[in-house]
Amino acid sequence: MSIWRQHTTPEEIHSRAHGSVNGLLDIRITEIGPDFLRGEMPVDERHVQPFGIIHGGVSVVLAETLGSVASMMACEPGFMAVGLEINANHLRPLPKGGRAFGLCTPVRIGRSVHVWNIELRRDDGELFCVSRLTTSIIERKPAK
User: Fold this and answer.
1) Among 3, 58, 91, 112, which residue carries the largest CB count within 10 Å?
2) Residue 4 lies in a domain
3) Nearest residue to 102 via CA among 133, 73, 136, 135
4) Number of domains the chain is built from
5) Helix, strand or coil for residue 47?
6) Thioesterase domain: from which residue to which, for each copy (predicted)?
7) 119 among known catalytic residues
8) Is residue 1 part of a domain?
9) Which residues contact 72 (CB under 8 A, 6 or more apart)?
10) What per-residue confidence (pLDDT) applies to 105?
11) For the whole model, what pTM was predicted?
């Protein structure tokens, strides 16, 4: 059974990325499963710190993107998710030229708070970052 209350496709998500940090960093949702979301991102000159490895803040942007998209999809129609807190543990380096692969799964999907676990892996499958995102679920206000 699917946890998603608002359905979309990776292509629809990507089409909205232009002009945002997701488009700038080439973050892509690659798979929407019944209770998980996958995404990936290249690691090039846009993503690295001066030592040629992925910048920790960029890892957090990828993790927050995956968790935020998942949280929005898990909201009831008429509601939306806003970030409350994110943390990340950087476990290994990911060098320039590699790819980051993310898996987002729910820890808890409540009425007013969602908590998501995001694992980021390198091309070789090694875990390089783990993150947890907490979102607040609020009523969507009509645009003025």
Assistant:
1) 58
2) no
3) 133
4) 1
5) coil
6) 51-129
7) no
8) no
9) 6, 80, 81
10) 98
11) 0.95
